[in-house]
Design a protein that fits this description.
binds nicotinamide-adenine-dinucleotide, succinate-semialdehyde dehydrogenase (NADP+) activity, alpha/beta, 23 strands, glutarate-semialdehyde dehydrogenase (NADP+) activity, Aldehyde_DH_dom, EC 1.2.1.20, 468 residues, oxidoreductase
């Protein structure tokens, strides 16, 4: 059993709230981790230590900070097997996929180690006798609040960018993957002076206490509801809210595509990581010309995916996913695959295909975060585009089409941070996007995250008057 502790000012201790959380293996239902939850006083102490440590860390050279990050990345890489086993035990991701996502996290740490020292300000064209600059500096103390669905990679991005730019950090990992977060902190923290990276543990109330504390930035990756409450807390304190939140990404399947290929794309988008990806395909609009063949192929894909996907993170999420599916079926959706809770231990849920879905159904409108592909047949590309755009979210969208004109319209017109054409996943390194609507605000990744983690100062310097 993993026992999770907090780190404040370089010292590992038990969280002091008196509450304990237990995490259960979603494959077997067996307990895997216990978490003594941090108290409000622990959160305050962590933030105070981070504040106290901030000026010293800000004064170190970017090169030294990058060297520390690079060394930390090497330690995380060496611990890949161990971290992957923790992830698998706590949130069910198959170990091989978990290792891939840890490799992505290590890559991100290394990327920020390279980019940090070359992140720079500007010299301005002022008077010849003066010096005018826009200089970047760290914002101060950054609260990093992360989810469970990709716990190492997401944390590495925010922690790496915050630390290399000279901020101190208090991290609160998800209560569903606390031992994974704990081990990551054990690997990272020794590379930085005491108090530069602290760790507090627990669930929503601990995150809320951290978000309401005297920090300069709250960087949150998680659900839209949480993001909104963090934005409200930041409005009270004046901290900057950086939010990467939920999505309900549409997939448009246009006339003229190969239905079998489109079904394979749709299945990858909807079922990978058991649908627990922020940019998973959450709703599908298929042109009537290809709908029958597409639906038949998608149902076959679902059967194949069910045999290889891991469980959902826990039965709480599974209950939510199944409630959306059941409500849709009651309202007239037709299950072509899956849709029932299997017998046996754990939180498994089959890859599910629902035909005949409508805009009003929660499974089309809200985020599902499970292996569910709800499908609506449309009469035209125009109709698909209109329905895809009509969403309270704006994270990402995909269009499968042989038409260059439709591809152009899709990326220009869809109100989402990322638009992909003819591939549900993919994109060049260095890409970064602004999520729209309920999906968040700010750059949560990519080189631009360094801008978010720093504040710009305009500087004007004149020579002292002659004769002094
Ligand atoms: P969540 O918001 O419930 O939890 C995320 C973190 O926020 C956890 O550490 C949690 O303890 C904390 N938290 C919960 N309530 C809080 C509160 N009131 N104040 C402060 N902190 C609080 O989200 P989750 O269920 O862990 O993660 C799944 C969600 O994350 C999905 O909606 C998914 O789309 C989203 N996500 C988004 C991205 C992205 O890049 N946009 C990436 C991964 C996951």
């Amino acid at each position: 059993m993993n026992h999770v502790r907090q780190l404040i000012g370089g010292t590992w201790t038990e969280g002091g709230s008196g509450r304990t959380l237990t995490v259960f293996d979603p494959s077997t239902g067996a307990p895997v981790s216990t978490v003594p939850v941090s108290s409000d006083a622990d959160v305050t102490a962590a933030v105070r230590t981070a504040r106290h440590t901030a000026p010293g860390w800000a004064a170190t050279s970017p090169g030294d900070r990058a060297a520390a990050l690079r060394a930390a990345a090497a330690d995380v890489e060496r611990a890949t097997g161990e971290l992957a086993a923790l992830m698998h035990a706590e949130m069910g991701k198959p170990a091989g996929e978990a290792a891939d996502s840890i490799a992505a996290g290590v890559g991100t740490l290394r990327q920020y180690a390279e980019l940090g020292p070359v992140h720079r300000g500007r010299a301005l064209a002022g008077d010849d006798s003066a010096i005018d600059l826009m200089a970047y500096g760290p914002r101060g103390v950054v609260a990093v609040i992360t989810p469970w669905n990709d716990p190492v990679a997401v944390a590495c991005g925010l922690l790496g960018a915050a630390l290399v730019t000279g901020n101190t950090v208090v991290h609160k990992p998800s209560e569903r993957t606390p031992a994974t977060g704990h081990r990551l902190a054990e690997l990272l923290a020794p590379h930085f002076p005491d108090g530069v990276l602290s760790l507090v543990n627990g669930d929503g109330p601990v995150g809320a206490a951290l978000a309401a504390s005297e920090v300069d930035v709250v960087a949150h990756v998680g659900s839209t509801a949480t993001g909104r409450s963090i934005a409200a807390a930041c409005a009270e304190t004046g901290a900057k809210a950086l939010l990467e939140n939920g999505g309900s990404d549409p997939l448009i399947v246009d006339a003229g595509v190969d239905p079998a290929w489109a079904a394979a794309q749709a299945a990858t988008g909807a079922f990978a990581n058991s649908g627990q990806i922020c940019v998973a395909v959450e709703r599908i609009y298929v042109h009537r010309d290809v709908a029958d063949a597409f639906l038949t192929a998608l149902a076959d894909e679902a059967t194949a995916w069910t045999a290889r996907i891991g469980p959902l993170v826990d039965t709480r999420l599974r209950d939510g996913v199944h409630a959306q599916v059941s409500t849709a079926i009651e309202a007239g959706a037709r299950p072509l695959a899956g849709g029932t809770i299997p017998d046996g231990p754990g939180a498994f849920y089959p890859a599910t295909v629902l035909a005949g879905c409508t805009d009003e159904m929660s499974v089309m409108r809200d985020e599902t975060f499970g292996p569910v592909a709800p499908v609506m047949v449309v009469a035209s590309f125009e109709e698909a585009l209109k329905r895809a755009a009509d969403s309270p979210y704006g994270l990402a969208a995909t269009v499968l089409t042989p038409s260059m004109g439709h591809a152009q319209r899709a990326w220009r017109e869809l109100p989402a941070g990322t638009v992909k054409v003819n591939a549900v996943f993919g994109g060049a390194p260095g890409g970064a996007a602004h999520p729209r609507r309920g999906s968040g605000q700010g750059f949560g990744y990519g080189p631009e995250l360094l801008d978010e983690m720093t504040a710009t100062k305009a500087v004007h310097i004149e020579a002292p008057p002659s004769g002094w």
